[in-house]
Design brief:
The chain contains 19 helices and 2 strands. The protein is an all-alpha fold. The protein has one domain. A hairpin with a 7-residue loop joins strand 1 and strand 2. 46% of the residues are buried.
């Protein structure tokens, strides 16, 4: 089978496997993790606009969330009924298709760098990795963000292999813009990759200019909406200072949740999920991993509700965080170090992070990726566009180190680690023929 057809077949197999997981776990019968997206989607279907209650009694026009997931869920509700299981399942199926796109993008990069065998190893790794298989069962922006991060990275690799491709430059920019409309954190890795492209192809300035223009034009309609609806120009979401406060206030865990008690964590760690005892421990852990918003007093809530606009409430969190950090400057370093540990190891505020089928595959992936990076560093040449991979990983890590962390936030990093991990496997497995670059 030709490599392109093989890539397409593996992508389709990824989609089919994700749909099977959706039908097996049936998370669409419950809330499916939609949370804020659900409230905004209901408002959209009712014809009331993009509204959410952020310390208000009634929904108001908001920039609290990025638009993609609420609009996708609103489409599902419009087709199958507001709050319906079928409406949520429709969004989860879209997320399954997105998973196929991410697998294809990563597989294509591996193929261009190290050949067909690397493509197969990468895509099989993505298909089999339990966290990626579970991901589409939750209506969360990470599904969208991971896919468009991989697509944008594939675009940067393509531009590195064949400089001067204006069509690919536009597509890369559009992929970056679409990704940011699902999760604006992608602006960091995308922006770093763009700076690298602008420097390496400065003699062909129209290429990085086309990437920037494609991204800007994709983001422009939503930025204009935020300006008109919220009274201020905004980049996709308005909730930056609220999220920054959650991750960095005194006593913060580094995430938006409180940690699970050590004794529960020890009892749950490395257990195989599915048994009655494990389910009981997971339920207990979920009850303990509550929102850090509990640090807000009744007086704080009253002060926030007294403010007239969402913008004023976000500024309240900015002022509050600045005051708290100034009172104890060393606390910020401590919480950053805590997040660094979570990035390398596990998030103690996420009950699922203690379970064997999450922990063991990650340890294997991390060890293989580390081995792959060492082998690449010792190699005579670097794959074209390898710098963009490093900048994408670095951008994601930097944002989460400085602002907030969560187990799901690391999933895009784990997806990118599949590439050096695949290279390590490729070098470790006996090869009947010399490695090919195409």
């Amino acid at each position: 089978m030709p490599p392109r057809q093989f890539l397409f077949a593996l992508a389709c197999l990824t989609v089919a496997s994700r749909v099977a997981v959706l039908l097996w776990l049936r998370t669409y019968v419950g809330d499916a993790g939609a949370y804020e997206h659900d409230e905004i989607a209901r408002s959209l279907v009712a014809g009331e606009g993009f509204r959410y209650r952020f310390f208000t009694d009634v929904p108001e026009l908001t920039g609290h969330q990025a638009p993609v997931m609420p609009y996708l869920l609103a489409a599902g509700y419009a087709l199958f009924g507001v709050g319906s299981a079928a409406g949520k399942l429709a969004v989860e199926v879209v997320q399954a298709v997105l998973a196929g796109g991410a697998a294809a993008a990563l597989g294509w990069i591996a193929w261009q760098w190290w050949g067909r065998r690397a493509m197969v190893i990468t895509m099989v790794g993505f298909l089999a990795y339990p966290a990626f298989a579970y991901m589409p069962t939750r209506i969360q922006a990470v599904n969208w963000a991971l896919t468009f991060l991989c697509l944008a990275l594939a675009g940067f690799v393509a531009l590195a292999r064949r400089p001067g491709g204006h069509r690919m430059a536009w597509l890369t920019g559009i992929a970056g813009g679409l990704g940011a409309l699902g999760e604006p954190i992608l602006a960091a890795p995308f922006g770093l990759c763009w700076l690298w492209l602008a420097w390496t192809q400065r003699a062909q300035w129209r290429v990085p200019a086309a990437v920037a223009a494609g991204c800007a034009l994709t983001l422009a309609p939503w930025a204009a909406r935020n300006t008109m609806a919220l009274g201020a120009a905004g980049f996709v979401k308005s909730s930056f200072w609220y999220v920054a406060w959650q991750g960095n206030h005194p006593g913060a865990s580094g995430t938006d949740k409180r940690p699970v008690a050590p004794e529960v964590a020890r009892a749950l760690a490395w257990r195989v999920a599915g048994g009655r005892e494990t389910d009981h421990l997971l339920d207990e852990a979920r009850m303990q991993a509550v929102s850090v918003d509990l640090a807000l007093t009744a007086a704080d809530s009253a002060a926030l509700r007294a403010l007239a606009t969402e913008r004023e409430r976000m500024q309240w969190f900015r002022t509050r965080l600045a005051r708290e950090l100034a009172a104890d400057p060393g606390a910020y370093g401590t919480v950053v170090a805590r997040r660094a540990a979570m990035l390398v190891w596990f998030d103690p505020t996420n009950p699922r992070a203690f379970v064997f089928w999450y922990r063991a595959p990650y340890v294997v992936l991390a060890l293989l990726a580390a081995a792959g990076l060492v082998l690449l560093a010792r190699g005579p040449t670097r794959p074209p566009g390898a710098a963009s991979w490093g900048l994408a990983v670095g951008g994601l890590v930097l944002v989460h180190l400085l602002i907030i962390m969560s187990a799901r936030f690391r999933l895009p990093v784990e997806a990118l680690l599949l590439l050096p991990a695949a290279y390590a496997v490729l070098r470790l497995l006996p090869s009947p023929t010399p490695l090919k670059t195409r």
